[in-house]
Write a structure and sequence with these properties.
The protein has 484 residues and is mostly helical. The chain is 69% helix and 0% strand. It has a single domain, classed as Amino acid/polyamine transporter I (Up-down Bundle), CATH 1.20.1740.
Length: 484
């Protein structure tokens, strides 16, 4: 732990790592109680699918097709290939360190306490703000559904936040409360609700594919790549963020029945499922409608327009709106779940207050943790215009991905003989490429994204030095003090 630095020194406290054996041993041995192992491979896989397959596919085509033309299909494959490097690293560490906390816990075991804190702190920003933004979007899609199904919409005053023409966004609060209801009932109940929602939204997207393929015209695929490789790369960068969320299963390390076997499989299977759905939807869309027309429509309207051209009817838009409502609900549920488990792991390590690790004896879920997360997200979604801040959250995810790739490199070097249920192929090339791709995508983010990232981490460093470092469980263990 922190080799090369004098124990008790500031440098030592910053670089000390939590031994992997201790991380695994403390999983399920927290002072606040144990989580219940209730999730099998299906539930874990669909947790990741639920977190990944959200509104992105409903809105991304209208923005990405004009960049790549029919080659948008290759752009999705390119983005999946990029995500695969990090997914393989997540799969190895999830099978080796099967605990709650995902990349935060992996960083603590491989890169040290300060890096783990920064990782966890960035994930808090990414999870909280992104799920708030998604909840805000849910109200818009709910209004679209109400308009097409019943001919009415909710008043703007109660369906949009300030800055968006409204006073309070009640639908955003409602979807957070619905997700909270399932989360408080237990991990198994949350997983079951998510399984149902994921099957429904995949069904809606397959419905789109079936209808669109009836109007498929091979002439629409020519020219296939009008802007060449540059267009495919630009579209690939845009659609990459539709893949964020495949790591959701890794936050359930202590609630998986067979984590060493199922977590790596769930991560890789979810990436395969999502990629297959994206490619099918993209191919069906560009085959049914000439790609220049996508530039005239934005977001979900492009998918609706494809179906209207294929059928001559407007009713398919109703099905798509319903699919978007279900997709967003599933994302809110799974991302909120992931955030509560990361907070649970950080609290067990002493870096944040103990209230976040208290587990109900009846439901075996962190109740206070879940309620505090729900309150925070509800306030963000109801009254705060997210604007540029919502766009800035992706940097936290890419930073976490980068650390996980580094973690695989470090753990292979420091613990080469440690049992691994899954080993990243082509090591060390795969994690190195994962790091390179993450840095590349981070470098291409806008300046405002970096400003938010830096300001958030300044606040994070202050929180760590004022509270986390002193209360760290590892710090108290090293001093031989009471860790309760």
């Amino acid at each position: 732990m922190g080799a090369g630095a004098r124990p008790g020194s500031l440098l030592h406290s910053l670089i000390r790592t939590k031994p992997v054996d201790q991380v695994v041993r403390e999983g399920g041995d927290g002072e606040g109680g144990e989580l219940k192992r209730s999730m099998g491979l299906l539930q874990l896989t669909l947790f990741s699918v639920g977190a990944t397959l959200g509104t992105g596919i409903f809105v991304v085509l209208g923005e990405a097709v004009p960049l790549a033309g029919p080659a948008i299909v290759l752009a999705f494959v390119l983005a999946a290939f990029t995500a695969m490097f990090s997914a393989l690293s997540y799969a190895e560490l999830a099978g080796t360190i099967p605990v709650s906390g995902s990349s935060y816990s992996y960083s603590y075991a491989t890169l040290g306490e300060l890096v783990a804190w920064v990782c966890g702190w960035c994930l808090l920003l990414e999870y909280a703000v992104s799920v708030s933004a998604v909840a805000v979007g849910w109200g818009q899609y709910l209004n679209d559904f109400f308009d097409q199904a019943f001919g009415f919409t909710l008043p703007t005053a109660i369906s949009s936040p300030p800055g968006g023409g409204g006073v309070i966004n009640i639908p955003a609060v409602v979807i957070v409360l619905i997700a909270t209801f399932f989360l408080l009932r237990g991990a198994s109940e949350s997983a079951t609700a998510n399984v149902i929602m994921v099957f429904l939204k995949i069904g809606v997207l397959l419905f789109f594919c079936v209808v669109a393929f009836t109007a498929f015209d091979t002439g629409n695929l020519t020219p296939f790549a009008p802007l060449g490789a540059a267009g495919i790369s630009a579209a690939g960068s845009k659609v990459f963020f539709s893949y964020i969320g495949f790591d959701a299963a890794s936050t359930a390390g202590e609630e998986a029945k067979n984590p060493k076997r199922d977590l790596p499989l769930a991560i890789m299977l979810s990436l395969f499922i999502v990629t297959t759905v994206y490619v099918l939807v993209a191919l069906a869309a560009v085959g049914a409608m000439p790609f220049p027309e996508f530039g005239a429509h934005e977001g979900e309207a492009s998918l609706s327009t494809v179906l209207e051209r294929a059928t001559g009817e407007s009713w398919p838009s109703l099905i798509l709106s319903l699919g978007a409502v279900i997709a967003i609900a599933s994302v809110v549920l799974t991302v909120m779940y992931g955030q509560t488990r990361i907070l649970f792991a950080m609290s067990r390590d002493g870096l944040i207050p103990k209230v976040f690790q208290k587990v109900s004896r009846r439901t075996q879920v962190p109740v206070a943790n879940t309620l505090l997360v729900a309150l925070f997200i509800s306030v963000l979604g109801a009254v705060i215009p997210l604007g540029e801040l919502a766009d800035a959250t992706s940097i936290g995810t890419l930073f976490a991905f980068m650390l996980v790739n580094f973690g695989v490199l470090v753990l292979r070097r420091t613990r080469p003989d440690m049992p691994r249920s899954f080993r990243t192929p082509l090591f060390p090339l795969t994690p190195i490429l994962g790091v390179v791709f993450c840095i590349y995508l981070m470098a291409n983010l806008r300046g405002v994204t970096w400003i938010v990232f830096l300001l958030w981490n300044v606040a994070g460093f202050a929180a760590y030095f004022l509270y986390g470092r002193r209360h760290s469980r590892l710090n108290r263990l090293e001093k031989g003090g009471d860790v309760r």
